[in-house]
Design brief:
single chain; 142 residues; mainly alpha; two-stranded antiparallel sheet; two-stranded antiparallel ribbon
């Protein structure tokens, strides 16, 4: 699947909106753990304030929003957005997933649901514990 398809599948599997950190970390985990799933140019995650970051994740989400597959909406009371799949996006994600093995479908769903179930600090700490190379530029103090 392409990077754009990966972002869509992760959002659809989340069963609700993802924060920027959740979306970044989900895409990062898939790329690090199952990078062979991504066809074409992979993301270029770099250590950033709160761990692995690639602006390309947001670029893909914005392109999906332009197509009506994703909603990018301001998070109430903050300066960042929330990302979620629309019904149209859910249907497209299902078509993408049907081309994958049951094991891959389960893995992608589990990654997405796991990041959504984590608190901000729990997610960042877990990523740093598993991937200490992504902590080098951290401002996270949790």
């Amino acid at each position: 699947m392409t990077r754009k398809e990966l972002v869509l599948v992760l959002l659809a599997a989340a069963s609700g909106p993802l924060t920027p950190v959740q979306l970044q970390k989900a895409a990062f985990l898939v790329q690090r753990q199952a990078g062979w799933l991504i066809k074409g140019t992979p993301f270029s995650f770099e250590p950033y304030d709160y761990g692995p970051f690639d602006r390309g994740v947001y670029v893909e989400a914005e392109a999906l929003a332009t197509n009506g597959d994703v909603v990018v909406a301001p998070h109430e009371g903050s300066r960042w957005n929330m990302y979620s799949a629309t019904a149209q996006g859910q249907a497209k994600a299902q078509e993408i997933l049907e081309k994958q093995s049951p094991k891959v479908r389960s893995y992608l769903a589990n990654v997405s649901k796991w990041v959504r179930s984590q608190s901000f600090s729990g997610l960042v700490k877990s990523i740093y514990a598993a991937y200490p190379d992504m902590k080098v530029n951290s401002v996270f103090q949790g």
